[in-house]
Amino acid sequence: MVEPVIVGYYAGWKDTDVDPRKLTVVNYAFIEIDWSLGGRDRDNLAKLAALRKQHPHLKLVASIGGWTRSDRFSDVFADPALRARFIRGGIAFLRTQGFDGIDIDWEYPGAIGIPCATSRTCDRPEDKRNFVAFGRELRAALDAAGAADGRRYLFTIAAANDRKYLYDQASAQWMRELAASLDWINLMTYDYHGTWENAAGFLAPLGRDPADPANANVEDTVELFLREGIPARKLVLGLPFYGKGWGGCSAAYQPCSGPLADPPEAAFEFSKLADEGYLTRDEEGNHTIGGRGYRRGWNPLAAAPYLYNPDSRIFITYDDEVSTREKIRFARRKGLLGAMYWEIAADGHGVLADVVARELKP
Length: 362
Hints:
The protein has 10 helices and 16 strands.
């Protein structure tokens, strides 16, 4: 039996405490594409190296890219010489830092997320094919390095949850080929609704609510990848340890005045919801009771909780212990490899991480 993986992203710009009992893999986010390190990176990597010495089961993976640092992938992966330079730098990083693998978080091949400078080329129609070529080359290099070093080096990616990402000219063949080079795929099964919308919706609904205009959810994403031939044991289900909020709302899926300006990016970390009294514990210890004028609701079709304040008309979508447990049990039913979450510090007391560990660890 393959042991489930539990991947937690470590946001390098935050003060983060890692509980190694609740994780099998830490993805350090984000390393620059040229493998350069800032002062905070060096301190964080030293901290992780010391932690791993005490807990040898813990795997450390360098994550490259993310929303704000994916603009150079298209250029680098389009050029065989630049791909080779990146791979050499990656192998050197793994050996120098004592890391176990590389995670590519390209957001997104063929459709860069952030605005691209007019003098740059940040996406190309052939990005996905170039990603496959890079994947084969990196896998071969990691296997050769691993054979020399007496270990296996990991290669993973973070993948978007929609059809636009999965398909290349109406075919998912590129993803099937890339998956052959990967140890697993961290599915970003969240942000189905977000701050680009003026209508409130669930951030990461497990199931389908016919009233949801997005008509997208965790179950459908997983089924889509499986249907296109991606092996279940190469899929890791993504979980958000944060929520999003809108003001001027009457209900889910209804027009609002817009995303909240405070907190930044309308993001409510789960630990903020608990620490600041938006949520309180019930008699079983779960955070299912609203506070500060909010009532906690539950959408049974989406299997998603929400907070709503009828006076301020603020709607907050998030995951709690109950919805997280439902998702992990779904992942186990589907035979997925495990779970991933963004990100460790957003669950400062380890409440949701406890649920993941209890549900997944043998």
